[in-house]
Amino acid sequence: MSTRIATGGRLLNKSNAVSFSFNGKQLRGYEGDTLASALLANDQMLVGRSFKYHRPRGIVAAGPEEPNALMNLGRGGRFEPNQRATTTELFDGLDATSQNHWPSLEFDMGAINKHLSRFLPAGFYYKMFIHPRPFWKHVYEPIIRHSAGLGKAPKEQDADSYEHFHAFCDVLIIGGGVAGLEAARTAARAGAKVILLEQTAHWGGRAAVDGGAVEEASVTSHIDGLVSELSAMENVQMRTRVMGAGVYDHGYVLGYEHLTDHAPGAQGPRHRLWRIRAGHIITATGAIERPLSFAGNDIPGVMLAAAVRDYLVNFGVSVGDRTVVVTNNDDAYRTAIAVTEAGLNVPAILDARVLPEDSTLMARAKELGIRVLMGHAVSSVTGGKRVTAVNVCSQAGEGAVLETIDCDAVAMSGGWSPVVHLWSHCGGKLVWDARLATFRPDVNHPPIGADGHGFVTAAGAAAGFFSLDDILHDAHAAADGVVTTLGFKLPVDVVSPNAERQEETPLAPVWMMPHGANVKLREKTWLDYQNDVKVSDVRLAAQEGFVSVEHTKRYTTLGMATDQGKLSNINGLATLAGALDADIPTVGTTTFRPPYHPISMGAIGGEARGDVFQPLRRTPMHDWHAANGAEWEPVGHWRRPYSYNRPGETTHDAVMREVTNTRTNMGLLDASTLGKIIVKGPDAGKFLDMLYTNMMSSLKPGKCRYGLMCSENGFLIDDGVVARIDDDTFLCHTTTGGADRIHQHMEEWLQTEWWDWQVYVANVTEQYAQIAVVGPNARKCLEKLGGMDVSKDALGFMEWVDGELGGFKCRIYRISFSGELSYEIAVDAGVGQAFWDALMVAGNDLGVMPYGTECLHILRAEKGFIMIGDETDGTVIPQDLGLNWAISKKKEDYLGKRAQQRSHMVDPTRWKLVGLETTDGSTLPDGAYAVGEGVNENDQSNMIGRVTSTYHSPTLGKGIAMGLVLNGPDRMGEVLEFPGTDGKIYHAKIVDPVFYDKEGEKQNV
Amino acid sequence: MSEPISALQGATYTQGIAEITALDPIGMISLRGDLTASYLKKPVKKITGVAMPEVRGINLDAGKGVAWMSPDELLLIGPYADVATNLETLHKAIGSNHALAVNVSDARAVFRVSGVHTREVLAKLAPVDTSRDAFAPGTIRRTRLAQVPAAFWMIDDDTAELVCFRSVAQYVFDLLKTAAQPGSEVNYHRG
């Protein structure tokens, strides 16, 4: 059994015991524990079930590479699935449940799959569920969905907050082990601005567990010295609990910080996403131990050798009373020695190598009385939910059992792989190191920055240096090289410390144990624990013709689980290489992509939630609208009143009232959101002639003109009224959604194509509150305010004038989007509300009412005015809308002119704008299509038109609509059929799109 | 005529790691043109009393000043009430030369962020190096704050002023409050 022992536990605060629960069971641990160490201390080796066969699974590792110990953590608003027990710090009240089991962890129905495993080989799903075709969607997929998946989706809104933080430095060092600390010291002493990130809560990485001496002192005191030296330096930022998640172009790095995960409910954000720009990045990310591939290597109690040591030294946890060590290298002997020195039993070390003479560590183990069996291997592990024994065989053979050793834990080591993920994210290449039997960063092919030089350097174990002395020297040299290229100079007295040399005999690559393992053993030999991929699956894939490692990965799902193959990757591709009879380097690796380890969605979103999920734009009169019954409509990021609903009134009734009132008395519209762009310069007229389809340069100061803007492909992108302010200056009104877009459009043409034209533009949209005063009583209202002449003679239709109304400095445009007598009045935004109030007071006995966007739409539709976004959808040209009158034939060129001459644009069968009127007065459904005769090649009815705008007009007492119809203008009076989604067929007659006051008498009074 | 009001009319937030204050309207003129031309340099000096700023610089003295916004754009800052006169001065000096000067005072909202954590509150929202050596008083950044455009500069080592568009004043105020929430100290920029 696994248990807490009396000694050890350097990371624990034993004076602070905490309680937590696992699957409802109350358990106890200490401050400083990880959830994994606390579970092991409580003999909870079984922590989950595998994905496919629902095999019992135990803790394998002690860090982020852990494939099995994934938990549902927390409850309610703090529930989160797929949390690794090995990286979760224990806190009082922690609430964890295991995943992927039914009905319980101890008894799982899905485990029946393991008996069917012969029938569930690689590619099983692809092979099995392809026929019959419809079954996938309706039968197979729902069942598989139910039985697959890791963890549950959270159901409540996240109770925590998150944030981003932008940081900048010369040298960013990822990894706070001995290499990272040494690199930081070197870079900082050279004067560079340094950020040092460590994913755990502790400095020093593995060194304290692995031991050794630096300059005559213990490695732990060396670490303490480095930490205190660095902490005192002004130019160094040291951060624990921040993982380097991804490396991107231009020295951009994401760091993922845990702020309150170990103290839920504490003030402040839970996670912080660091967005770092670094001059150079040093990855001191260490190495990950590889499992060995032998039968039963997934049985709970089989663990990485270094993890066994970690639990013992860091957390005072023994994973078993009798631990068999199986290895192909010297490092695992450290585990055997540590376990023995802790007073526990190591019945044997099975070393696959046959060494001519004992290595230093082997000799030390033998001195301690540990039995060392060279050339031996695990034939299989026996046990169900826990290891009970190891069957020993010769590594060279096929697995004939020579001996059975009873034990309750197996510590395995297949060698170490440098953590090359961050090096590789941005294109760093790898090289196969035959001596270490691993891929390591190829220093000649680093990720290349904008200057053509590498911007990432690996250091220490991450670069393939595994002895303490080598690690320190490499880290020092790496940092020295980096700061030199950045233009810093290392003081001559800053030299690399020397560590006591520990000679190690090289490992022997072992990809299958025993070497000649038969198929029965291979079928029980796991490569990917989480996704249940076995040696036999990879071999089958090779047999079926998969030669690319990327294809094999996807076919077998090797390395596709949430651990992204941190343990399985090298073993898997070595197995594939073996099956293909190819060299490992020619098979290559799969791609390493960020993030290194999963990061929370909350951290990615940062502050953007709740009130600040998205910017909401408010006009100066926003609060008034809200207080007066506004039913809001989102228009871009703005909120505009759709209608102003009175108490007890429906939205529809409010809209009808607003239309009728505006046509008979007067209405006020908040038009502040409409874009206002100043275009000024000697070439302003020429510029606008290019932007608009009609002529703007001929406009006289004091006058207004409606214009259309097209993209260079000829499609209508915006419209609005242009006012000429003086010879050199125009003010262009755009649509609400077009303000920023058209401003950018103008800048783009001015900066890229017409950079030599003398034109400046400025977006002054928000400088003004603009209010449309609309209706027969509009002039009376302005006259009541007084201060300027607004008569027809002084201010004619399509003219503008500056002046003062009721004490407000303003500019009045006599323009109309309603067909009524209408003034659009711009005042400074700061007095917008006061001016609105003044209009409401002045209009009080003239029947003034505010109106919203829906009323605006009906008013314009009654007049047959088009709306960008309704009548246009990015595929419509002005000619489709009968707007030929607004397209200059005199101009040599304008944006879109050439495109509009292309064959498809002049095709007479393009659908054209018409008015539509239902035969029974009802309102056509929006977006409905008119069906013609016959069917198309897909057996669908032929379409001959569609509705673009449709409303009930209270003015006319019937439904009115506009639409684009095949040969529409030539088919006046014809009745079309529009099937609705409600099952009804609507009949509508093609009519002129101007329904109201075709002569325009009302707006021109 | 009514007194102009700002979008948030002096809203403040004092419970967090930095103090946020919505300021009263200030005068702002956007000026585009050849920044080396004497017909721009002279009136700018006359109006603001300060020298032309360097690239990404801002020169301020007693509430008047000028900020570099782009290779052909300046932002003139001064009392709200002086804008009309100042525009007149500019237009006179510019004469028939090619330049554009417009009043943008009402198009903006202005905030002050103060306290020892000011720099990190800004760094949570803007992709800007706000460290003391990279962002000293006298420099300005025209950048973004989360999802909207903004510009800010340091008044002193621990106080920033910030402008954004008026329509998003509430969003920016809420953003700053979120970034300054209690317990969110980063303790990154050392004093």
From TrEMBL, chain A:
Residues 912-997 form the Aminomethyltransferase C-terminal domain. The keyword Cytoplasm does not apply. Pfam families: Fer2_4, GCV_T, GCV_T_C, Pyr_redox_2, SO_alpha_A3. NCBIfam families: soxA. Residues 523-605 form the SoxA A3 domain. PANTHER family: AMINOMETHYLTRANSFERASE, AMINOMETHYLTRANSFERASE, MITOCHONDRIAL. Keywords: Oxidoreductase. Residues 170-439 form the FAD/NAD(P)-binding domain. Belongs to the GcvT family. GO terms for biological process: tetrahydrofolate metabolic process. Residues 621-891 form the GCVT N-terminal domain. Gene3D superfamilies: 2Fe-2S iron-sulphur cluster binding domain, sarcosine oxidase, alpha subunit, N-terminal domain, FAD/NAD(P)-binding domain, NAD(P)-binding Rossmann-like Domain, Probable tRNA modification gtpase trme, domain 1. This is Sarcosine oxidase subunit alpha. It comes from Sulfitobacter marinus. GO terms for molecular function: sarcosine oxidase activity.
TrEMBL record, chain B:
Gene3D superfamilies: Heterotetrameric sarcosine oxidase (3.30.70.1520), Probable tRNA modification gtpase trme, domain 1 (3.30.1360.120). Pfam families: SoxG (PF04268). This is Sarcosine oxidase subunit gamma. It comes from Sulfitobacter marinus. It comes from the Bacteria. InterPro entries: SoxG, TrmE/GcvT-like.
